[in-house]
Hints:
The complex is a heterodimer. Chain A has helices spanning 51-59, 100-110, 115-128, 144-156, 174-189, 201-207, 225-229, 244-256, 271-284; strands at residues 5-17, 23-36, 40-44, 66-71, 74-75, 85-88, 162-166, 193-198, 210-215, 218-224. Chain A is α/β, with parallel strands linked by helices. In chain A, the strands form two sheets. In chain A, strands 6-7-8-3-9-10 form a six-stranded mixed β-sheet, with helices on both faces. A four-stranded antiparallel β-sheet of chain A has the order 2-1-4-5, with helices on one face. Chain A is globular. The N and C termini of chain A lie far apart (53 Å). In chain B, the strands form seven sheets. Chain B has a six-stranded antiparallel β-sheet with strand order 10-9-12-20-15-16, with no helix packed on it. In chain B, β5 (347-351) and β6 form a beta hairpin. In chain B, 34% of the residues are buried. The interface between A and B is medium-sized, with 31 and 29 residues.
Amino acid sequence: MQSEVIVETRNLTKVYRDFWGRQKVRALKALDLEVRRGEIFGLLGPNGSGKTTTIKLLLGLLFPTSGQALVFGSDAADVRKNQRLGYLPEESDLYKFLNAEETLDFYGRLFGMPHAVRRQRSFDLIEQVGLAKAKRRQLKEYSKGMTRRIGLAQALINDPELLFLDEPTTGLDPIGIREMKDLILALRKQGKTILMCSHRLDDVQDVCDRIAILNEGELKELGRVDALLKVQDVTEIHASGLSPAACEEIKQVIEKHKGRVLSMGNPTATLEELFVRIIRESEAHPGRRVRGSQET
Amino acid sequence: MPPQDTVAPPFFTWLLGPGWSEAGLYQPAMLAVFIVLLCGGLVAGAIAMRKGSAAISRKTAILLAGGILGAIVLLGALALLLWLFPVLRAPLAGLLGTGWHRGALFQFAAVVVCLGSFAFAVGWLAVAVQRGPEEALARCGRVVGEAAFDLICLSPRRVWALTWLTVKEAVRRRMVVAFAVFIVCLLFAGWFLDPGSGDPARLYLGFVLTTTTYLVLLLAWFLSTASLPADIKKRTLFTVITKPVRRSEIVLGRMLGFVAVGTGLLLIMGPISYVFVVRGLAHTHELPDADRETAEQLWNLPPETVARKGPQKLTTDTVNGHKHTIYLNPLKRVLRDGRAELETAAEGSFATQPEQGHWHAFSYETSDEEQPDGKVMRRLRTKLGPVLGRPIARVPIFGDLRFKDREGRDARKGISVGDEWEYRSFIQGGTRAAAIWSFQDIREEDFPDGIRVEMTIEIFRSHKGDIEKGVLGSLWVRRPAADPKVENWVEVRSFEAKEFVTDVKLIPRDLETPAGEQLDLFRDIVADGKLELRLTCEVPNQYFGAAPHDLYLRTGDAPFAWNFAKGYLGIWLQMVLVVCFGVMFSTFLSAPIAMLATMAMLLGGTFWQFIKDLGSHKVVGGGPGESLYRMVNQDNLVSEMPPGLRTTLLQMGDVVLEMGLRVVTRLLPDFGSYAFLDDQGHACVASGFDISTAMVAKAVLSAASFAIPLFVAGYFFLKTREVAR
């Protein structure tokens, strides 16, 4: 059974005009999309492809030139939908003169949350995004990564059903990227729906269930990530503890069945995996050089 | 140029039109219904506020807003109709009173209807060009419907959050600077303000009021216009708009935040200014030893000798550029063996002669001192107290002024003696020319000992005469007569008028007619609180100059601190308006343009009276076009324009421009009315006049009549614009 559609665009078009009303750029052309409850949906595309425009239209920050943008079944301009959504903007544009606690308290008030709830929620979120030590510092003193974290915390202040994440991993170090991706996956487990846009393909591939690829404002591809990336006529086997003889035997079996061995050997870890392992081990054992990292 | 019709109408006449008191709508029964409805509305509102906006359903909100809007539209449309078709005025006069359409309330409604219709038409046209007339109508209707909900269902918690944010931003960024500038200004002023000037109270008060006004308005202007555009530019507004915040709450939160910042600043500046003024004016004097010793002699002389010499004139030392005269009479009468005898008093206290608008308490006491030769000498110890009578807040009753010419005929103005400033006009001495003030609302309880008249008469001497001596004039009173030909004037007193001096005269309760008939001022002359007072000049070929506020009845004094606070309330109202204009403009303009637009409003509001006079063809030199022509050609202001096509075209253009200026005065607040200026353009607080409750009420209502539409306009601009780019 297909789950409920909570974000929908129908023939959504956006044309940017100049002061005199002359057309400057056609940012989005008749986009039709559906995002279902509980999935992580990724908008992919190069710079200027219309990803951020789509999100802004869905949030009511821009008005469509034609077509409709619906969130929870109501028009994007309706503020009541905002009660149930969270938004992490691309640059974490927050008030720099507030500190982390004040920031979360302020956004909590905008949701009409009572004082005690706001306090508890702010405390939990600051812990969750790892800013407990810096919670009294004004945001203007924060690094880019810290700003991203507090931006994410404000997006979660109301425990939203739907999250809009605009380039969520921009400005984060590899650990931060990993944590962000883990968090996104954890949020999905909690049943939240996430619409994210990114031009970092690995991020999208790692976390998204479905993606839409946009280019020059047009939808070029839409579907499940695993289905889109699946290479139908290639088979992949991962095994451990095989002797060279066993490997030779497997090759012969493949040839016997008229298959062709494309490659066979030991896989390499990604640089991200290596980096994360080294940093985590060094945090666990400060002052000790991590084993395996001496090899050049 | 100050206004000529200076006697402001009473509050309700201003609000509801001149005939409101006879109108059916304002009778007690109707008022009771209105009050019940109002209280019901307030209670419902309070409950809704407590429970949050969810307590008000969408339908109720639209119904409420629709009701308010409907009432305004109805009133406005009626006022407009009556303006266009005066025949229709009579039928409603019974309900609303004659001249009701001249009341501020109805004029406000008319302006709202005009502006609302104009805005709707422009909005519709803008959408219709792109999407066709029908969809445009539907969209505009939807925006208005949503507005009703957005404007009624405001969440106090969210508004407060945005207010708090605004205050925090201002405090952490710029406000401290403004406050520092204020303190520096005061420190410098302490060096340069001369307490020895002719009227130091006016100087000090004028300075603090002006400094505070400029600083607070500057801060309000700067903060309110820059903040929202910066929010949009830095995209910080995105995270706010994507929360369940209505645009009305953003506009209101911003406005309230800046108002709170300005209020905080005024709350600090007010008391500091008050202390600065009071301390700056505070001083006391001492009696020089020579004068004290002279006075001491009086106690060592026989009382009869002292009585023959009369009061002793003493002079204090000079402090702050002035000294006071004291007339010391040490004698008192005592009854001894049934006979009144004179003896010197052991102690006494009285006041010094006034100087620079104030005086001091003077007290003395004597003691006996035995001399080496065995004689007993009386020693005198004197003490002068602190400043009395300054700063003050006189409560005046001003009257309407009219004139009689040389032959005793009615005239709107007196004679011009060639002053460029036409504020005062003159009456010729030794003729039947007179200046007549008509007063109303005179109550007996305000004047238990007779009516106190204060006047500053300007004298124009056509021959020098004895320049040291004043010019003789007379004051007359009478009951306002139904027949203007009845000359039932009763002379109160003759007096010697002097230049630049405020004369204080008391009209006693008991008066005598030329025929010898005894009259009581309140029983026989003042009728329904009305009284006429006539000033004549008795010296042939000398002239008295008079303006409406040159002569007034002084009912008493209000507490100065309270008047000072009212003066600050005026600054607060101006600040509120600047904030409202600033925020409204910043909802759709970039920061520099919003700053320019707000400054234009501020300047226009400051010169409101001039713009109004220019639009009503009251300014010498013609309309804007004609004036420009005269300036370019270096023509004088009064010569006739040469007849011809050019003049006709200029004057036709001026008719259109003047109409535009009249429209502008309807849309601009008159900042002078919030600064509580007197008719000569000085702040009432500095001139020492009480700001009446009616003036305050009018200013508050009039400021609200701008602030609320500006908030609504700001909401619409922010609602219909794209925040992102």
